[in-house]
Write a structure and sequence with these properties.
The structure is a single chain. The protein is α/β, with parallel strands linked by helices. It has a domain of 96 residues. The chain contains two helices and seven strands.
Length: 197
């Protein structure tokens, strides 16, 4: 099954909406780039897909510069299972302000993890998780080994995903920019004079 929709309305060079499900009629993979882009790999102001990058992103794995929701998500304010951002809320949350089951940050809250300053203005029922709040602060040194191992494995995995995503994005966007800037002008060929005797 395949479905393609691309709106005629554009903002600059970007169509307003571009939705791609499956390959086109010729079997080629189409990547949506639009203000609202929906597809397997999507790039846009609002991007939705398995792998998506945009200002606002909903994806299995992606980058949302301002905000994002996903399983593996990077960006500004992010919500996900494994998330890294300025404000991160997730199972494994990493960022200056991190709230999660495992939190790593400057300010934050977590059942486990490490934060410099614990957020104490959260509702009491959140702060009293099972009555065994085990947030690790500077004065606790023994659990550092577990924290280091956990966050190193998760961090390296997320870093590898981010690197692969950004690399593919760079290649795609440079190709897209080249295609959308217009057809290349070909120099006219000079006819060779044949040396006939």
């Amino acid at each position: 099954m395949s479905y393609h929709y691309k709106s005629r309305t554009t903002i600059g060079r970007l169509p307003l909406v571009h939705i791609v499900i499956g390959p086109d009629e010729s079997g080629e993979k189409v990547t949506p780039v639009a203000v609202l882009a929906v597809g397997e790999h999507a790039y846009g102001i609002v991007a939705v897909g398995a792998f998506a990058n945009g200002l606002f992103t909903v994806a299995w794995m992606g980058v949302g510069l301002i905000g994002g929701i996903g399983q593996f998500i990077f960006g500004g304010a992010v919500l996900g299972q494994f998330c890294t951002g300025l404000v991160a809320l997730g199972q494994f949350a990493v960022g200056p302000f991190a709230i999660g089951q495992w939190a790593l940050g400057i300010w934050g809250f977590g059942e486990g993890g490490w934060v410099y300053r614990e957020v104490n203005w959260l509702p009491r029922f959140i702060r009293a998780v099972d009555g065994k709040h085990v947030l690790i602060r500077f004065e606790h040194v023994a659990p550092w080994v577990m924290i280091t191992i956990t966050f190193s494995i998760v961090g390296l995995f997320m870093l590898a995903l981010l690197w692969a995503n950004l690399r593919e994005s760079r290649n795609f966007l440079s190709e897209w920019r080249r295609k959308s800037s217009g057809p290349e002008r070909k120099k006219p060929r000079r006819k060779r004079k044949s040396n006939q005797l």
